[in-house]
Write a structure and sequence with these properties.
single chain, 30% helix, 71 residues, 4 strands, 2 helices, 37% strand
């Protein structure tokens, strides 16, 4: 299980949250006021899947930075 903090340009926060929510590995999405704009809880079979997910997130319009934390 992984928590992923996503920093997003302010005008794209809701769009990014909606895009991420549609991804199959994602279990929960939160728009936050903490260190990151969007927090995601996701599950992966292996580290390779996490790397693919991170790369996919980085290509979403409005995403500035992706910070995964493995639990």
């Amino acid at each position: 299980e992984v928590l992923v903090g996503i920093d997003v340009t302010p005008e794209k926060i809701v769009d990014v949250a909606r895009s991420v929510k549609a991804m199959q590995c994602v279990k929960e999405v939160f728009i936050t006021s903490g260190d990151h704009d969007v927090m995601v809880r996701a599950v992966f079979k292996n580290y390779s899947e996490l790397e693919e997910f991170t790369s996919e997130l980085e290509s979403v319009e409005g995403v500035v930075r992706v910070c995964p934390s493995i639990l």
